[in-house]
Amino acid sequence: AQKITQTQPGMFVQEKEAVTLDCTYDTSDPSYGLFWYKQPSSGEMIFLIYQGSYDQQNATEGRYSLNFQKARKSANLVISASQLGDSAMYFCAMREGLTGNQFYFGTGTSLTVIP
Amino acid sequence: SQTIHQWPATLVQPVGSPLSLECTVEGTSNPNLYWYRQAAGRGLQLLFYSVGIGQISSEVPQNLSASRPQDRQFILSSKKLLLSDSGFYLCAWTVRGAPQPQHFGDGTRLSIL
After folding, report:
1. Cβ(B62)–Cβ(B80) under 8 Å?
2. N or C: which end of chain B has fewer CB within 10 A?
3. Which residues of B touch A33 (CB under 8 A)?
4. Which of B21, B42, B16, B90 lies closest to A91, judged by CA?
């Protein structure tokens, strides 16, 4: 089974609107970390936000927030007030055991912000 | 602060030629190091990771190899490149033993002719 599933190959959002990018994960380890990365067309992978499995509150970083629903094993990324510069690929990732050696990545979601 | 350097940024190589991509990390000690490959429009494929000098774990059997001659240096090599080796190669590091994210280099675009 896939460790990380991103079911939205492509998404469109109007500038200044909010958008949610979906991510579900699969693990039997009670300790894990969830991450979101942004990859612009230039290729670099930019870390956006982190959620630990024991964190009680949803993580937030500026316009990014992570909607963490542990029972559903979902970790959706919410981008508020979308900007043209948000157009990029977005990857969800998981690190098992919080300090495990491997990171598992989803297949990514391509987000296009429409002016 | 920690930085990761990866070079070259772009490389065009003929089929059958050797390869050496280098990655170095500054500002940290004992990092976990990783090599990924990304085909155009696709996700990341983990190739190798290392938890210490001389310790290499291979995730995908292929004609690539990796070495870690120094604590903060990670090298991806091949003796004979195949057309299928084309792609975008990313090096990454993370703190060992802490719930920290991976941090990536700027990547190398490798084209095999």
Report:
1. no
2. N
3. 99, 101
4. B42
C-alpha triplet B91, B96, B100: angle, nearest 5°: 75
pLDDT 10s digits, B55-89: 999 887 678 999 999 999 999 999 999 999 999 99
A93 neighbors A103 (Cβ within 8 angstroms): yes
Q: Say whether B43 and A105 touch across the interface (CB within 8 A).
A: yes
Cα distances from A45 to residues A42, B15, B68, in angstroms, run 9, 28, 22
Report how far residue A66's alpha carbon sits from residue B27's, in angstroms, rounded to the nearest whole number: 29
The verdict on a CB contact (< 8 Å) between A103 and B90 is no
Type of residue found at B112: I
The model's pLDDT over B4-42, given as tens digits with 9 standing for 90+, comes to 999 999 999 999 999 999 999 999 999 999 999 998 888
pLDDT on residue B61: 63
C-alpha dist (Å) from residue B103 to A30, A115, B31, B32, B73: 24, 31, 11, 11, 15
Angstrom distance (rounded) from CA B20 to CA B67:
10
